[in-house]
Amino acid sequence: MSGHSKWSTIKRAKGAADIKRSASFSKLANAIIIAAKAGGGNPDSNYSLKLAIEKAKAGLMPKENIERAIKRGTGEIAGAAIEEALYEAIGPFNTGIIIEVATDNKNRTNPEVKNLLQKFGAKFASSGAVSYQFTKLGKILVSLEGKDQEEAELAAIDAGSEDFAEMGDSLAVFSKPNELDKVRRTLEEQGFEIKEATLSWEPKETVAIEDKEQAEKLMNLVEALEALDDVTAVHTNFDIKEELI
User: In whole angstroms, what is the distance from residue 111 CA to residue 30 CA?
Assistant: First the structure.
């Protein structure tokens, strides 16, 4: 199996302060706006929008906020244009980082991300310099609670998965991006609980991090990037021992 970073799934618990929830709602809304703009406002025919809405609901985003974001995406409500961008970076200890953003002002977002990277000893990389080390896949987290792992793995294979990996109390099942919904529905029909389904940049190989100080620096960098309002996702190729996390 190819390398998959546990850090992309196992994360330290974060506080539920209102300011963080507000920032989270902003990220969730931007994802809905972009999906609705690209594929229309009907989640039944726009799977990207369906995923964005499900993620917003899981984040306790109010229904009216979701509906307003959909209407902004379809142009029914006026608002600043939201654009997607993908930044590639070389992190500390020669690690690779992919940063997804959704912003209404790239002239604001670019220096924010750049300054934060520099603070942690990381830097922007040219397009393709890091992303070639990753593969874009559908990623489904299947709960193993009360389930046999081997049974879940066999079900994932039968559903058409490309790969899978144990991640804590879950099985991460990977699919081709355009088969994410099919694999998810097949697993649900077989009685498996789906914790999350999303598109993810997964590393082809991982960089093992076994030093506590290195692990802390990398975790702090990722959390700082994720805290930026315009950052929607951070993907890395480092693999930290669970005991260090």
Answer: 20
Q: Helix, strand, coil: what percent of the chain each, to 5?
A: 45, 25, 30
Question: What confidence tens digit (pLDDT) does each residue in 158-176 have?
Answer: 999 999 988 878 999 999 9
Cβ-based burial of 60 (10 A; exposed 0-12, middle 13-18, buried ≥19): exposed
Domain count, the chain: 2
Dihedral of alpha carbons 181, 184, 189, 194, sign? negative
Q: Residue holding tokens 């939201």?
A: 82
Q: Which pTM does this prediction carry?
A: 0.85
Cβ atoms 27, 100 nearer than 8 A:
no
Give the chain's length: 245
Q: Are residues 138 and 127 in the same domain?
A: no
Widest distance between CA atoms in the chain: 52
Q: Which two tokens stand for residue 191?
A: 């009685």
pLDDT band at 18 (very low <50, low <70, confident <90, very high): very low
CA 26/CA 47 separation, integer angstroms: 20
Predicted local distance difference test score (pLDDT) of residue 9? 58
Same domain, yes or no: 87 and 199:
no
Question: 6 near 167, Cβ under 8 Å?
Answer: yes
